[in-house]
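Q: Could you predict the 3D structure of Methylglyoxal reductase (NADPH-dependent) gre2?
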Amino acid sequence: MSKVGEPDAPECAVTQDADCLAGGSGFIATHVLRVLLSRGYNVVTTVRSATKGDKILETYADYAKNKKLAYVIVGDIAKDGAFDEAVQSDPPFSYVIHTASPFPSSFNDPVKDVLEPAINGTTGILKAIQAHAPSVKRVVITSSFAAMTQDSTPPKIYDESSWNPITWDEALTSKTYRGSKTLAEKAAWDFVDTEKPAFDLSTICPPLVFGPVEQQLSNINSLNTSNQQILNILQGKHVHDTILLPAGSSIFTDVRDLALAHVRAIEVPEAGGKRFFVTAGHYSCKRIVDIIRASHPELASVLPKNLQEDLPADIYGYDNGRVKSTLGIEFRPLKECIDDTVASLLKLGV
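A: Sure. Here are the predicted structure tokens for Methylglyoxal reductase (NADPH-dependent) gre2:
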């Protein structure tokens, strides 16, 4: 069978439910797609171009041949009616997983390039489902820890009740990405509360996401932002550094655990109407470097030699109990996550 790796999810009864996966060529979505197919779902995924869609069908050729996998092109997720066609299917969809949201490394216009695609893409797919897909029982949306972080007075322990207090005006400045994730998730919950659709909603809030690279890359530097930290280390860009701060938060999750959480969120009845804070725990760049050095002594010449621990003793805590108890997720430790990530990067020729 032509597929990338075997599923890490526990065995599950084969299902014939149809599922729409929005944004199927992304780093997280690639892993979500693998889990969905391995668990017996019929999947239609959205992509921005036929080139991306054809690569997905090529990767999962047997599923495509057996009509278990197809794609629909959605070129601009912020456009009115962008998802109207995508959510209509025969057989009709039972679930929709929405992972599509911009995370540009640079942009010219915070509204047109980031905020509108995130917010309008989220509300747009909900409107399309309500209008054209009455069979949908649940929608799962990928949000972010960025929608939870609080800079001025952070809580001692983050959990699903934590919300980023960012405003629209603040999102127009240096906190655009955080604003996009916060405002998009809030817009989703507001839609459900106001419109009272036939489906319910779950949102998934991960911090930095490490893990093996399975998606098709235009080049090695088009990695997701979290894995880019590891790539930079492997490429020797920090060999002389003594302090190396995390890019973003100091907590992480493995993409394979995150993907399974998305799928379990459509399978577990109790997941409806809930946020899920999907994190495995703290990490630091020194811990990552130490793991790489121990597993790959041949890379010693490119690794920082005198890196200091930068994780503060009073770092905020986290409560991932809901993910464990409701979704049944058992998180991979940092070492396994980093070892597998490095192995996939080395396989790509880093």
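Q: Anything worth pointing out?
A: Residues 18-214+252-280+317-332 form a domain with the Rossmann fold fold (CATH 3.40.50.720).
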